Amino acid sequence: MRIGILGLGRIGAFHAGTLAGLDVVEELVVSDPVAAAAQAAGEKFGATVADSPEAVFASGIDGVVITAATDAHPGLILAAVEAGVPVFCEKPVAKTVEESLTVLQAVRESGIEAQIGFNRRFDAGCVAAREAVLSGELGALHTVRSTTLDPAPPPAAYVAVSGGIFRDCAVHDFDVVRWVTGREVVEVYATGGNKGADYIKEAGDVDTASALLTFDDGTIGVISNTRHNARGYDVRLEVHGMQDSIAAGLDTQLPLRSAEPGVTFPSGVPHTFFMDRFAPAYRAELTAFTEVVAGTRTSPCTVADALEASWIAEAATLSVAEHRPVRLEELRKEAP
């Protein structure tokens, strides 16, 4: 199959390398507003370089991967829908919920498959945790914890357009706890603070945050995030039930030191980068997209799924601003 890639920044170039290594992908057609980036990808991966998204769609691609800037996501998804091409787009669907709702309606009406990039759904540990929940071996759930601790904050320019830590970072935690538990969040109470980079506070954001989620069956979710985890990139998931508990992310490269005498775990070099921690998950995610393109499966993470994570992020953002619990139904009623 022929796959288009729109956007050849860090993650776009990474995805190009992954796709080029898949046997089912015969050709890549790439484009980026920065011509040098597209040309570099073309030379490195043997891809065909197009001078615009329109040229990519006109080239006869079977599917398209969108890794452009967030502001471009809605327009490019809609362009894929209009072209009748299955689309993979990195999160978020759009910068605002209103735009996401417009995209959702268009995708639903078109019948075109759209997959949104929440890679933790393809992490082996998270998959095993979900299977443990579905099998019933954990019993009734009472608590789920998800952690994303970045080793250092992103640049000021990125923070200024990120939408905040809940929309940019914690949204991965929100998606994975919803997916693993199979339950919907009904209420959020969140808090946050600033201990590091001044530019994060100046942007109206926090650099460390926590959110308590209440699910529709009474399960409690605990989400923890920070931009300052000097030991490395720490992503973990715990699921606790009445009969057993399970965790993802407890590998030898866990960026944490044990204070217990004689304990050497974890013994490996700590994870420091998300592409390192989730390389196998990204490969599995894009392999799934090729199956979507081939028509052998439906989207494993739909626009509707992504919108649910965004609602939780919106509720957390409002909760911090107003220092109160926020029911998701409040936000849904306000949406057009």
From TrEMBL:
Q: Does the keyword Kinase apply?
A: no
Record's superkingdom? Bacteria
Q: Where are the annotated coiled coils located?
A: none
Q: Which Pfam families match?
A: GFO_IDH_MocA (PF01408), GFO_IDH_MocA_C3 (PF22725)
Question: Which keywords belong to this entry?
Answer: Oxidoreductase
Q: GFO/IDH/MocA-like oxidoreductase domain: which residues? A: 128-246
Tell me which positions the record assigns to the signal sequence. none
Q: Does the record carry Oxidoreductase as a key word?
A: yes
Q: Where's the Gfo/Idh/MocA-like oxidoreductase N-terminal domain?
A: 1-117
Q: Which family does it belong to?
A: Belongs to the Gfo/Idh/MocA family.
> Protein name, please?
Gfo/Idh/MocA family oxidoreductase
Q: Which organism is it from?
A: Streptomyces akebiae
